[in-house]
Amino acid sequence: MDFFGGLDNMALLRRLAALLMIGVGLYHVIYYILVERHIPLWKRAVIPTKKDFVDFYMHMKYIFGLSDEFPKMGRYTWFEKFDYMGAFWGMVIMIGSGIIMWKFDIALQYIPLGVLEAIWVMHGEEATLAIAFLVLIHMYNAHINPEVFPMTLRWIHGKVTRKEMEKYHPLELEEIEKKKGAEKSG
Ligand code: HEM
Fold first, then answer.
1. Which residues, 6+ apart, have CB-to-CB distance to 71 below 8 Å?
2. What would the pLDDT profile of 87-135 be if each residue is shown by its tens digit?
């Protein structure tokens, strides 16, 4: 508490961080709606499909040494989609419950106290879940995994190497090369 300059300062910082998160969340939703407008929202490449469950199954078999076949994935791997869905819905839960906690007196006029208490618990539990996910799964995938240790700079330059494309996104690579071939011959 002292580190943050007392209770009032801490509450203010929390609200500033919350506003930043709401801004980032809104930016993402607007971006998602506007980009690739010709494809319906639920048919975008990031939405999980049946194939992701098959890829997950094949990937697990590969990891546990039961098969030599690595799943051939497209623009987003099953685990990237899983990560994205966790972050997206986590954000919806944190922002929704956070706004209710922020304006608790107003919420009390419309929502029973027991439900509000459950929402408060949900906020704390989702925070714990998010931190557990970051420490256990994200830390390994993004930093400790020898393929990327200590981290890639993808989040700055937005690019992946050909080797990464060949291993994790061969179907998208095929599509890109087909398009390039068609452009050359056309
Ligand atoms: C990933 C993002 C977030 C994390 C990790 C987080 C974490 C937490 C935790 C652990 C608590 C304490 C819960 C308890 O008392 O059991 C809390 C309280 C609270 N959070 Fe969040 N939160 C996040 C996002 C948000 C957002 C987006 C808002 C607002 C829209 C928000 C508003 C609040 C409020 C108002 C409280 C009550 C404490 C106070 O009034 O200062 N939080 N948060």
1. 54, 55, 58, 59, 62, 78
2. 999 999 999 999 999 999 999 999 999 999 999 999 999 999 999 999 9
Protein residue with its CA nearest to atom 9 in ligand 1: 124
The 10s digit of each residue's pLDDT in 9-32 is 999 999 999 999 999 999 999 999
Cβ atoms < 10 Å from Cβ of 68: 7
Q: How many A from CA of 82 to the centre of ligand 1? A: 23
pLDDT tens-digit profile of 31-67?
Answer: 999 999 999 999 999 999 999 999 999 999 999 999 9
Helix orientation angle between 50-63 and 78-102, rounded to the nearest 10 degrees:
110
pLDDT digits (tens, 9 = 90+) for 73-91: 999 999 999 999 999 999 9
**Domain range summary for the chain, segments of one domain joined by +:** 1-44
- Of 12, 94, 103, 120, the residue with max ligand 1 atoms within 8 A of its CB, to mutate for a pocket test, comes to 94
Ligand 1 proximal residues by C-beta, below 6 Å: 11, 14, 18, 21-22, 94-95, 98-99, 101-102, 123-124, 127, 130
Q: Which atom of ligand 1 is nearest to the CA of 14?
A: 41
